């Protein structure tokens, strides 16, 4: 995560504050998060009251809002840069975070965060990035870093605040992905990062996928629309979000207890809504010939991760029991792209390794026994020289097919 330069505060009024009054200069020298928050709320109110006012004056609401958001972001991130000795002896108190939460959780500014998210598109360009950075920081500050324990209580307070306003927060995030609402790429990317930050908390993740109705509202827009948008960056970001939703962040360096809880939530909704997710959407929309290269490749990676995750055993058994799914993966195994054939192999091996193959799946493998063994022998031979695990897996799959 990028932050402003470490000497930004020097230019914020220490040398020049006595010569310049008001405006951005005084904001840049402000170290009080609560004062900044009140200014942000006031500037936002003025912008929403007069959205057509695009004044470039240093005192205009948009300029002041941008300066205050930038300053608050700097103070929050800069607070983490404290000597390790201070943390070790327990002398570090995250005052900026405490003051920020005091303002956000108070009655006067309790709806500031959802309001900022709902009107992100009308904010100055850099301010959108700052809002997303502040939101994400407060929501994950207690999950990462050597000083995570110090920030965890504050992070939980903010997480509870997001949950309190969850309908508004998630509605704003989803609307921000909708090209019918706006056509600004950067806004979609900022909303995507905030959606993924929410996914790191079991309680918020459960709000998104805890019921079939919530999955239809908060996940299916990605499967049905967002991953198919024409802008490559936006569609790629949506696929990354979908990966996080469906794999519960498997492979990330996270707390094992939290990861296990997330995995169990994922397993529950992926099994409960199996037909709507896998049969009606995933295989037909993301792995079909009409899907583009990026979509098919990431979809195969998602599928492989899901099938090989222990908590998804029932999903794996149902998926590899399907004759239709096997035929689809065998087609992808012969794709012209070497990357897709490799990703397809990691799904195909699950079909072959299944000890309880249904008769129709077994028959397809037997009917294509010689062709499959020959094709797999030549598949990615160059990779075998450097990847012993791939070499061993491929040899085992070929031997299993030949022994059918």
- Name the structural class: mainly alpha
Shape summary:
elongated
In whole angstroms, how far apart are the ends?
A: 52 Å
Unreliable stretches: 1-25
Count of helical stretches: 24
Give the quaternary arrangement of the chains. single chain
Strand content: under 5%
Rg measurement, Å? 25 Å
Number of beta strands: 0
Characterize the main sheet.
none
Reading the helices and strands in chain order gives HHHHHHHHHHHHHHHHHHHHHHHH
* Percent helix: 55-70%
The residue-averaged pLDDT reads: 89
Your description of this structure?
With 404 residues, the protein is an all-alpha fold. The chain contains 24 helices and no strands. The chain has a domain at 321-404.
Break the fold down into its secondary structure elements and pairings.
Layout: H1 23-28, H2 33-49, H3 61-78, H4 84-88, H5 95-105, H6 112-118, H7 125-140, H8 148-164, H9 166-177, H10 185-198, H11 202-209, H12 212-218, H13 220-224, H14 232-247, H15 256-272, H16 274-286, H17 293-307, H18 313-320, H19 323-333, H20 338-353, H21 359-367, H22 369-378, H23 381-384, H24 388-402
Family: Belongs to the Mo25 family.
Pfam families: Mo25
InterPro entries: ARM-like (IPR011989), ARM-type_fold (IPR016024), Mo25 (IPR013878)
């Amino acid at each position: 995560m990028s932050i402003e330069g470490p000497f930004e505060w020097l230019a914020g009024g220490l040398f020049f504050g006595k010569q310049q009054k008001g405006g951005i200069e005084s904001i840049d020298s402000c170290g009080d998060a609560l004062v900044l928050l009140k200014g942000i709320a006031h500037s936002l109110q003025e912008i929403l009251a007069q959205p057509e006012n695009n004044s470039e004056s240093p005192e205009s609401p948009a300029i002041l809002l941008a300066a205050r958001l930038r300053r608050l972001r700097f103070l929050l991130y800069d607070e983490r840069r404290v000597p390790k000795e201070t943390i070790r002896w327990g002398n570090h108190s995250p005052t900026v975070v405490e003051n920020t939460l005091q303002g956000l959780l108070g009655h006067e500014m309790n709806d500031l965060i959802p309001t900022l998210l709902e009107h992100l598109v009308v904010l100055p360009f850099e301010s959108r990035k700052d809002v997303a950075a502040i939101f994400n920081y407060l929501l994950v500050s207690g999950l990462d870093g050597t000083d995570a324990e110090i920030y965890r209580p504050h992070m939980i307070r903010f997480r509870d605040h997001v949950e309190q306003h969850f309908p508004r927060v998630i509605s704003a995030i989803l609307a921000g992905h909708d090209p019918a609402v706006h056509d600004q790429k950067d806004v979609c990317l900022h909303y995507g990062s905030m959606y993924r930050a929410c996914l790191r908390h079991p309680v918020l993740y459960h709000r998104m996928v805890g019921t079939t109705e919530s999955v239809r509202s908060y996940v299916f827009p990605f499967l049905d629309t967002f991953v198919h948008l024409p802008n490559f960056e936006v569609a790629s970001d949506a696929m990354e979000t979908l990966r996080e939703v469906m794999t519960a962040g498997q492979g990330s360096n996270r707390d094992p207890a939290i990861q296990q809880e997330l995995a169990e939530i994922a397993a529950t909704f992926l099994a409960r809504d199996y037909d709507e997710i896998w049969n009606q959407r995933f295989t037909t929309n993301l792995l079909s010939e009409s899907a583009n290269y990026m979509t098919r490749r990431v979809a195969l990676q998602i599928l492989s991760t899901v099938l090989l995750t222990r908590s998804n055993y029932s999903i794996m058994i149902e998926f590899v029991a399907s004759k239709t799914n096997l035929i689809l993966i065998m087609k992808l195994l012969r794709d012209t792209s070497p990357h897709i054939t490799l990703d397809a192999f990691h799904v195909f091996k699950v079909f072959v390794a299944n000890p309880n193959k249904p008769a129709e799946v077994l028959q397809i493998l037997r009917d294509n026994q010689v062709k499959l063994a020959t094709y797999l022998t030549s598949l990615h031979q160059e990779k075998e020289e450097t990847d012993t695990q791939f070499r061993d897996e491929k040899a085992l799959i070929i031997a299993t097919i030949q022994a059918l």
